[in-house]
Amino acid sequence: RHNDTGAMQAAIDRAIDEKKNVFIPIGNYSLSGPLVVQDATAIVIEGANAVDTLLDISEGEGSCFTLRNGTEVTLRNLSMIGHSGFDRRDQAGVMRTRGGTSVWGFYFKKCNAVGISNTERVLVENCHARKMSAECFYSGGRSRSGTSEPKQYTKAITYLRCSVEDCA
User: Fewest beta carbons less than 10 Å away: which of 84, 99, 122, 156?
Assistant: First the structure.
């Protein structure tokens, strides 16, 4: 099966190095794993439109986009599809274990639209996700301790005109 992860990752890495943006033309792009946006000072990754620009991770695993560190990232005009809609909710359910901890089924093959970690400012605009096994738009990272702020952490995330549907 055709896989676009390597070519798209190369375009993103080059755009970060050259301080440029990435335009994704109309198409259905198959992903095997996340597109990592690492240490971007300012980048816009934009699809032609959210109806006809589709990132498909249904045969892969992880996030369509993983945003790590960096200053400012914008994702715009994209649709993303995973592998586990509501019809698979029992497969992605919870398994009770001895010792008081439970394991969620989606841990075994997780997919989500966007995972954000310590990117200071993020704008996600006109992005739509469906059939994701985990949280579609997820953020986690360094936290504050006492009165001191971490050197870098996510300070602002804005979602405009985004949607989530049919997720386990």
Answer: 99
The residues facing 118 across adjacent strands are none
Mean pLDDT to the nearest integer, 129-158: 84
**End-to-end CA separation in angstroms for the chain:** 25
Is 94 strand, coil or helix? Answer: strand
Asked if residue 139 lies in contact with residue 158, where contact means CB atoms within 8 angstroms, the answer is: no
Over its C-alpha atoms, the chain yields an Rg (Å, rounded) of: 16
Q: State both tokens at 68.
A: 């790590």
CA 123 to chain centre: 12
User: Among 51, 61, 62, 33, which Cα is nearest to 138's?
Assistant: 62
